[in-house]
Every structure is written in C-alpha cells, then in structure tokens.
Write a structure and sequence with these properties.
elongated; 91% helix; mainly alpha; 115 residues
Length: 115
C-alpha cells in the first residue's frame, strides 16, 4: 500500500514539474520575443504577431499539461514517465527558444518589404 501511494505521489510530481517548466518557458518565450521585436524597431503588426504567438503557445502548453494528466492516470512505470518527462522538457525548451528566435528573420523580411 505504501509503495502504491509513493508511486502516485511521484507521478503527480511529474505533472507539477511539467507545469513549472511550461510557466518558466512561457516567460522566457515572451521576454525573448518582446526583446527581439523591440530591438528590430517593432511595428504594431509585429507586436500583434507576438500576441498571436503567445496565444498559440498557451494552447500548446495546455495540451501538454493534459497529456501529462493522462499519463499520470495510465499508471506507467517510473522509468517510463521519467524518460517521457526528459524528452518533453527538452522539446519544450527547444521550441520556446527557437520559436522566439524565429522573430529575427520575420523582422528582417518585414523591414525589407515594408521598410
């Protein structure tokens, strides 16, 4: 009985930990976007693009949180959850940083076209 309760407590920490990573990655994503657009002389169109990008990030973040709630209910082994967790965290941070850096070519192209 204690082992079962211990495993449930550990599984729930994965869901909480992914939520913490999502929140931190969202802050980094937003700050990088705002900084990059501001340095490039951001116009109103680019700032509206930031709002759309943050909205898309929020939808994807909610889907990832839901995925971890479902994984938690499945009763997977601890090692299986740990492997999935590391993979999801790596993908999350890569997408957050690369997604924010994509504003550099967008800003360059926008400046070239609409100068």
């Amino acid at each position: 009985m204690a082992t079962t309760l211990g495993n449930r407590a550990q599984r729930s920490t994965f869901a909480k930990r992914i939520s913490t990573h999502l929140a931190a990655a969202l802050v980094v994503f937003c700050l990088m976007q705002i900084g990059i657009v501001a340095k490039m002389g951001g116009s109103l169109v680019l700032h509206l693009g930031i709002i759309v990008a943050i909205g898309g990030y929020a939808v994807a973040a909610r889907a990832l949180e839901h995925r971890w709630q479902m994984l938690e209910r499945r009763g997977l082994s601890q090692s299986g959850l740990a492997l999935r967790f590391r993979r999801d965290v790596a993908q999350l941070w890569t997408a957050s940083i690369v997604g924010a850096l994509l504003w550099i070519p967008v800003g360059i192209i926008y400046g070239f076209l609409f100068g």
